[in-house]
Design goal:
Arc Repressor Mutant, subunit A, 2 domains, mainly alpha, 73% helix
């Protein structure tokens, strides 16, 4: 954590709303991408992000400057998304957004675009959307590690801290999740 961020956190803990807004502006895109990656729906991702920042504001006074703010923030976003997924499962609804929406352009599945024309670009966009759907169909413990590691690019150590599991468990879940994702995509490609 840098000195400027530490000052923003301390001022926010003292009730300075402007400093809290500056702090949140630094992380709102990452929080939204994480929520969207786990929930697969623009409205739910916005709700989860907003709810997470409310939780952060309410509990900021308890934050110790001994750990990274980003790790703490990711943990709150992750838990908020898990709560929403649990509620969704109780209601038996699983909305998946399939249209390309410019509001979440920062959320990208890392697939290389080797297209030379509109047909290849359309195929790439379709595949990207299918990858998103397949991630959402994975067991929740695999979704979290894939979103945080492969989409957000967090190092293993930080993913472990966010999820409160060991690095070995992160690697194991990531390996299993990737295998399941690969199998689902292979099945999908063989169907089409």
């Amino acid at each position: 954590m840098n000195i400027e961020e530490a000052k923003l956190i301390k001022a926010s803990q003292q009730g300075d709303i402007k400093c809290f807004e500056q702090l949140i502006l630094r992380y709102q895109d990452q929080a939204y991408r994480t929520a969207y990656g786990m929930l697969g729906n623009t409205e739910d991702a916005k709700d989860a992000t907003q709810e997470s920042f409310i939780k952060i504001y309410k509990s900021l006074k308890n934050f110790k400057l001994q750990s990274n703010f980003s790790t703490w923030m990711y943990r709150i976003v992750h838990n908020t998304c898990l709560d929403m997924i649990r509620k969704r499962k109780r209601r038996q609804e699983i909305p998946i957004e399939t249209k390309n929406n410019s509001e979440h352009e920062g959320y990208e599945i890392p697939l290389e675009d080797l297209s030379d024309g509109p047909e290849a670009l359309l195929e790439y966009q379709f595949l990207r959307e299918e990858v998103k759907k397949c991630i959402l169909e994975l067991p929740i413990e695999y979704q979290g590690v894939i979103v945080l590691r492969d989409i957000e690019g967090l190092p293993y150590e930080e993913v472990a801290k966010v999820l409160e599991i060991s690095e070995g468990t992160v690697k194991s879940r990531l390996n299993r999740g990737r295998k399941q994702l690969r199998q689902r995509l292979t099945d999908l490609l063989q169907q089409g």
